[in-house]
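seq:
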Amino acid sequence: MEFGGVLPIDAPDPSAASEARLRSIDFPVMQLVPQPSLTRMPITGFSESTGTGGFDHRTVSFSYTLWRYPDDRSDPRNEVELDAATRRAIEEEPPWGRPAWLVEQAQLFRYPMLQEAVRTTWHADPRAPHGSLEAQLIDHMNHVLRNQFREQLGLPTGPTRDGSWQVRPSAVATGTMRVDEREINGIRVDTDPFVVGAGFRVDPHVVCTVVLPRDDLPLLDVSLATLA
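struct:
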């Protein structure tokens, strides 16, 4: 229980509930193949919508910590530059203490993140306007751009009507992806200066999309695998 904005020191680790929810998903979920440069973030992203017949769609999103020098994770070159407020939030212990899991998770903010890098989305009706693979990839890319590249795009704080930065359907091209150690057909967008996107249809109701910062691609194996 939380009182006055104070998290009790014995508060349960939310990553346990997140992992349990992930394991309850009843459709195939994709991830980037395990590799030294990446650690999956302990909290998985979930979104869903419901209609009169139950779920309309369900999405599972994975974010990752990126290790630029994975052979030595203590190498300070792995860290990002932090502002003073963020550094204080990570390093300063409040008088009432913090749960051990919160201390550990706070340390992750020292390092670059690939936020919502991989999405797996199930649609009850794959013919729905937003159920197509192309629509899902464009939405994923624009979401990442809007939330992680605002400064580079020159976007002001808050809502904006300027859509000139958005990925357009005309940018979508055919491509191949390596999934579960085999090459499969999919789609790709490689025209944006900040991110590269790709996707494929897992089954008639499920699509997977991947959006990665262009500058980080040399550090990554972009192959995918089905979560066991």
